[in-house]
Amino acid sequence: xxxxxxxxxxxxxxxxxxxxxxxxxxxxxxxxxxxxxxxxxxxxxxxxxxxxxxxxxxxxxxxxxxxxxxxxxxxxxxxxxxxxxxxxxxxxxxxxxxxxxxxxxxxxxxxxxxxxxxxxxxxxxxxxxxxxxxxxxxxxxxxxxxxxxxxxxxxxxxxxxxxxxxxxxxxxxxxxxxxxxxxxxxxxxxxxxxxxxxxxxxxxxxxxxxxxxxxxxxxxxxxxxxxxxxxxxxxxxxxxxxxxxxxxxxxxxxxxxxxxxxxxxxxxxxxxxxxxxxxxxxxxxxxxxxxxxxxxxxxxxxxxxxxxxxxxxxxxxxxxxxxxxxxxxxxxxxxxxxxxxxxxxxxxxxxxxxxxxxxxxxxxxxxxxxxxxxxxxxxxxxxxxxxxxxxxxxxxxxxxxxxxxxxxxxxxxxxxxxxxxxxxxxxxxxxxxxxxxxxxxxxxxxxxxxxxxxxxxxxxxxxxxxxxxxxxxxxxxxxxxxxxxxxxxxxxxxxxxxxxxxxxxxxxxxxxxxxxxxxxxxxxxxxxxxxxxxxxxxxx
Length: 540
Hints:
single chain; alpha+beta; Beta-Lactamase; Heat Shock Protein 90; five-stranded mixed β-sheet; 16% strand; 54% helix
């Protein structure tokens, strides 16, 4: 008989069976496989069975029963294979997840792995998840992190990226931690702020899940009396899952998961899988949080120890400096009295001597050298005074004007042009008036000594943010490198600057009071000196 189906032929051509797809060409020469895989569901084979029945073939009544049973068993086998494959993937996934959670001490890494596991297709495959964690005082559940898309377009883009990458769970979590963790916190900040709940509110569904220690599947959200209307509006889904995170009877937090994009139902199997997942996540979060808190405390203790060490070193240094100051002051006062007597007698003799007196040159030398020694002693005494500054609130404009008026006659005698510009409404600063006045005076004298027979000096005050700046500019030759080096060394000697401690002492005084001395070359020639004084409140 001429049958429609090819079940009676050992070998066939492509035209005889249109149901063999590309890549299945080996079925053309294998009758057994072709009958099992293709003929059982082939419409032509069903027509042949009907013809057998019409022709009263002996097995025409039995064959349909055998074929039906075979197809049912095949479907069961396919279902069992799918179930086994799914369970295998789940076991592999949970193993990989537990390895990460058990070994990681980094809170961000634990969060990245956990949230990626919930939302990734290779994990539980939920569209969106929110993590709420109990605060340190265990008073509130606060929104901490949200992961997932906010709309279908973003979800489609994420799914395409995942399909292209084909990474493992850990690789996906590391990539998420490196590139998206911070942005995800910001993206869902508006929702996270509205999810915070007091732990004392026992009727709230989040706290009920924590007390029950089992996941809750919340359905018909917009009409569910257990769901606050504000929570329903914030989440905007009709069904979500609440998974409590409990570790050793401690309430760590909860995870809220939903399918806001696909609206796929959350099955009991999803709840069971998430319940298995909850304990290692809670334990890992608690351990990472405690480790992070311990690290913060260690950092604080380390900083405190360093500060204590610095304070101890400062105390020792201050004791040494105080001793140096006492010795210096004692020696300076012992020298000062006889020096003033010598200088006074020499000046008196110089005034009474005639112009043509041969001893007049000796007296002039004695007066000059005595004046130089008096200046050095004044600097030494200023150094001693700088160890114990008397801080108070002062008007910098008044200070600078007083110093400028004091030295203006000397500048004019040297043929140096000078000007003073004070900023209006300058705020008062907390300084030692005597020491800062000494610094301004030393800067003017230094510029005056470096300028040639004629030159120009500009002294002005300005505000620069939170600082008041006293700025002195001259049009002299500028400072050579060795001269700048000398600024940091008291009593250093250079050919142009001579020997002294004026500018080094300025820097020492200013640095001890938290101020700065800056020196810059002017573009057109000359030097600019800047005393920078921070604006402090009177309480500070």
